[in-house]
Fold this protein.
Amino acid sequence: MIIIDNMDKRPIYEQIVEKIEHLALIGYYKSGEQLPSVKQLACELSLNPNTIQRAYSELERRGTTYSVKGKGSFITTEPEKLSKRRKEQLFEQFIPLVKSMLVIGISKNELITEITKIETGGKAI
Amino acid sequence: MIIIDNMDKRPIYEQIVEKIEHLALIGYYKSGEQLPSVKQLACELSLNPNTIQRAYSELERRGTTYSVKGKGSFITTEPEKLSKRRKEQLFEQFIPLVKSMLVIGISKNELITEITKIETGGKAI
Amino acid sequence: MIIIDNMDKRPIYEQIVEKIEHLALIGYYKSGEQLPSVKQLACELSLNPNTIQRAYSELERRGTTYSVKGKGSFITTEPEKLSKRRKEQLFEQFIPLVKSMLVIGISKNELITEITKIETGGKAI
Amino acid sequence: MIIIDNMDKRPIYEQIVEKIEHLALIGYYKSGEQLPSVKQLACELSLNPNTIQRAYSELERRGTTYSVKGKGSFITTEPEKLSKRRKEQLFEQFIPLVKSMLVIGISKNELITEITKIETGGKAI
DNA sequence: GTGGTCTAGACCACG
DNA sequence: GTGGTCTAGACCACT
């Protein structure tokens, strides 16, 4: 389920973090579910375990997962935190973006019209 | 008019590119106007001329400016291209962002309400 | 009575040691009382017997319990040692902590006020 | 100024983080001051640059420092944040510690007496 | 077996 | 020169 895009200029570990957060958010990983082990995922993706480890550390730091030494890494059991944080993140992007659009002369009406036309079919971020 | 933010994680040359494009878009730099010389701007901003040179090269590559050997760099004389490209760029960010927001359960009405509240005072991108 | 917190970053055996010491201190386990067997506790907590064994060994090493071959582990019959040692431990933490707080400008009055407000309801250590 | 204690069971990078935060807090490092480079400090402490890098990343994540690629790492220019966070950290330790002491029968008066006796001369944390 | 830390050495983008 | 990422391989504590 996790695919690394070498064309993507972001670091690999960051791609992994985002992908796993996304999988947790859409319910592919259930609350409390165990993630693949560092070594296993490193093997699957042909990456160094350190790279996976870094991604997992970041996920834990963000509260997306928690890890237990000797047992493994698990999706947090407080999933409402995940979606709340995600929502804030998106608004943090949304508001300055809209401001930029207004500044260069795109009207609020034009934006609202655009929104009403959007269907959730295509590519999201 | 150009202020470098050291806290900004983006490279300095990229900040300069964006700032100059912005200044061109809002009409601070007129079509055909000459930019400050590499040396002068480097001096003003206390930066290495290499950094400015890189920004200017990038601006030329993007078509925002053109350079004349021995004379300097000038804002393009086809400014409508600038705003058209910028507008496209912003919509390319806007649409997938809105899709993401809809996917995680933010309603279109909530977005529209948010837009109507936005004033162009604060930080844009 | 013993609950393992997987979110707690400390090793499980250490959590068990601390919990049993606490239970002995507050009198839940009486002096000389037998602890549950390794197997039984491992079963109750769904843990590996090795983990329990390690906790019991540590408790014996600390003098909190003593073990009799073939019979089991028992709370020490010199309980006054327990509370004395615990008290010393806590003061060893308390005094440098207070010093740190004073150093960064928290006043003694502020600390005393804080103490008078504390109820023993919430989370202790 | 930074000394690694190999007896300390905490990871090296964490010792470095704490030491630098402390040095920033007591004013040894001024606001905006540049830290030694990753490689230089690694050399001075006879450690691998990765270990220092990890410490520096953590410091930046905590807001104690900010880093500029190609330039170096610098103490944050908003130092009031540092002491505010430090104060919170200390109270987070203080309150459960006091609760533990009350639980095992140490009285509030005894604690208050102890506090009034404390001078900031000795070892803090 | 698990996660976590560390070393050694490499490459990159940036200034 | 700087910080940042990545690989390779090692050791440790814990389960």
